[in-house]
Amino acid sequence: MTMFKILTLNNISVAGLERFPRDDYEISSEIQHPDAILLRSFKMHGMTIPPGLQAVGRAGAGVNNIPVAEMSARGIVVFNAPGANANAVKELVVAGMLLACRNICQAWGYVRGLEGDDDTIRKEAEQGKKAYVGYELPGRTLGVIGLGAIGIKVANVALKLGMKVIGFDPQITVQSAWKLSSDVRQASSIEDLLTQSDFVSFHVPLVEATRHMVNAERIKVMKDGAVILNFARDGIVDDRAVSEAIKAGKIYAYVCDFANGLLQNHERVITLPHLGASTREAEDNCAVMVADEIRDYLENGNILNSVNFPDVSMSRSGEARIVVANANTPNMVGQITTQVAEDSLNIVDMLNKSRGELAYTVLDVDQDVPESVEAGLSQIDGVLNVRVIRRQRH
């Protein structure tokens, strides 16, 4: 019987860890030679990768803390949990809009600074409230950039609050489009969205194309008095440009989940300590999702929600399964099947899928696989990782 080893680099929700049967899995923060790694925010860049590692699971959506390119070169599958924290972030975006348009933080700070007896505090609070008059959400336009799991929830709930919603995502999937309300209008470009929006919320990953997506030039085309919300990734918004625009009266407020010295004490900036997914429910959901993904991969070789390899799912048949991570180059499948045939193994089912420069091949065979097969496949130029998965015998 195979005993899988899981290394945890952060505290992982018990709800997720309980998805691993104790008879088949050993889980520890100090384990040696792990088959898989589970983490949340731990930065793996520069970390020595354990030999024999097969998978990395991020209990969250973003994978900036994982050296994905290095993992890909080794044939290590990187999983995440897209959408598992979507409701938590959605609720925080709604809270951010209300905090900004009703001047709640500024008003709270004012009251906290009052001194005197109860009558004095009540009188000064009543007199001071006129400085914090805000406005309501219905009828205002929310622009949502990025219509994945989170962006869709934000767009749909804003409509229920009586807002108008415009969205921009040139890479929206068919699955996402089905979940998006038909009342969400489509923007032709980021600039088109910015010119129409009273609130702008970002829900995109941080890559080179999205860094400083809001900058001084784009702020110029925004509506006067707009509110910017960033609960996605630090760096998507040019903080200095937004700070200057607030001081100039162009932008009304900025609400974000990423604190720094520039924004910390800014009068019309609300910075939170990365609370987007900080709910018990979100932590549980993320841990459960990624645990199920890791388990299915280790036990069956199936892939779901990987950021570097294609989704692959094939029902088990035969005595053993061979899974091969390889470069997406011509004749790889031919070389793999030829090698298997040379070792007198009969293939009863097979699936090959690719994603960009990477591919993944699954072969079910009708007999046990000798060690020579794994060694032979590993010698093929372009093969990154080979694993034989035998049926568990309890």
Word description of this protein:
This protein has 14 helices and 16 strands. It is of the alpha/beta class. It has three domains: 1-85 and 278-309, Rossmann fold (3-Layer(aba) Sandwich), CATH 3.40.50.720; 86-97 and 134-271, NAD(P)-binding Rossmann-like Domain (Rossmann fold), CATH 3.40.50; 312-394, 2-Layer Sandwich (Alpha-Beta Plaits). A seven-stranded parallel β-sheet has the order 8-7-6-9-10-11-12, with helices on both faces. Strand 11, helix 11 and strand 12 (269-271) form a beta-alpha-beta unit. Helix 3 packs across helix 6 (149-160). It is elongated, with a radius of gyration of 26 Å. The model has no long low-confidence stretch (mean pLDDT 95).
**Nearest-integer average pLDDT:** 95
CATH secondary-structure class of the largest domain: Alpha Beta
Remind me, CATH topology of the largest domain? Rossmann fold
Give the SSE string.
EHEEEHEHHHEHEHEHEHEHEHEHEHEEHE
Order of adjacent strands in the largest pleated sheet: 8-7-6-9-10-11-12
SSE class: alpha/beta
Helix content: 25-40%
Number of domains: 3
Total count of strands: 16
Distance between the termini: 7 Å
Radius of gyration: 26 Å
